[in-house]
Amino acid sequence: MTRVTKVMAAFLVCMLFSDMAYAHLIFAATTPVPPASNGRIAGDAAKFNEAAIEVLKDYPGITVNDLYGLTKPKQSQWWTRPGDVHYNTAGKNAQGNSVARVILEVLDRKDTAGQEKNLPIKGEVFKIEDRTAFLILPEKTKSGNLIPWVWYAPTLKGLPGKAEKWMFDRFLENGIAIAGVDVGESYGSPKGRAVYSALYKELVEKRGLAKKASLLARSRGGLMLYNWAAENPESVACIAGIYPVCNLSSYPGLGRACGAYGMTKEQLAAKLTKHNPIDRLAPLARAKVPIYHIHGDKDTLVPLDKNSAELKKRYDKLGGKMTLEVVKGQGHNMWSGWFHSQELVKFVITHAREDKPKEPDRIVLEKQFRELHMEARRLAGPLFWLHGEQEREVGLAYLFHPRGTGHRIRFSQK
Question: I need a surface site. Which of 4, 102, 363, 390 has the fewest CB within 10 A?
């Protein structure tokens, strides 16, 4: 029974996340079944809740409202009569107040999060590992398909800004989402990479984004994205850069970067090849990750020769494919040409859409569920029943709680 319940719960959570990416999900625990209840088994509610909570450990973004814990101590006072799963007025009011309180708390958190970052285009702002992240989704996506996406860095205060809007509009028009997370001045440190991995897991496993991201690094975002990419080359569709930092020695310098790495300047120098993008290109070359940089020859903050040019020389030697567009007379500035590059945008769009979407997790879970269908129906007490329908409808799912209330959820195969 626990195995069936877990598959059922995982399937429904996956379905809800893929269909309602902007929604915040709340799980209300099933209330207890009284002894001698007609047609129901006392103790089952606790088992169902335990199975659901086990699944929800992989979805920390889902809020849990423990109605079981609320009602259990006062069940004898709140049931209408012995053996009846229905509640009297006091019991209904107590549960209603709990539901309203949790919903308001969630809405409060979302409003607060939304005030922490002003995006150039409407999107969602949320928390990952207590860091501010964002996700901007295209208006139209093919149902059931994984969404290609651009990973932008750095997502510091004020970034991405209005300068990026033109590029972002082009991506969205082509069905490509944009995401990022603020890891502060991490300079590509392991702590920052860990937060990046948490964001990747959230977006790919729970929000329906493609398994390969197209990385877009502006300035010091290069340190952040390249160091994560070197450790996760199979998760990268391509890398594009606007005067990106690729060399810690060049910028910000080891004396300034060492604090983010929890080392002294000397310690970081001794381990530099493990943390410096230009020294970590081999995994990307083996994975055949294409790269496109646009960089000015007058850049004194992030010099061309020590960053993009050096990276291209090394990547070419490793057999990697990289295009470097050198802009004459430009430095590290807000020239509009950096952010209106047709070639860079075309490069990103081409490779972002090249990654063919694989079968979503919700479909895999549905297959598992069908295999367990007959097993579930044989269990004492109805848990889950799937009834096939015509055309686009996959089925009508009935969730039966021990207290006898059924919930219907329709899901379609588009």
Answer: 390
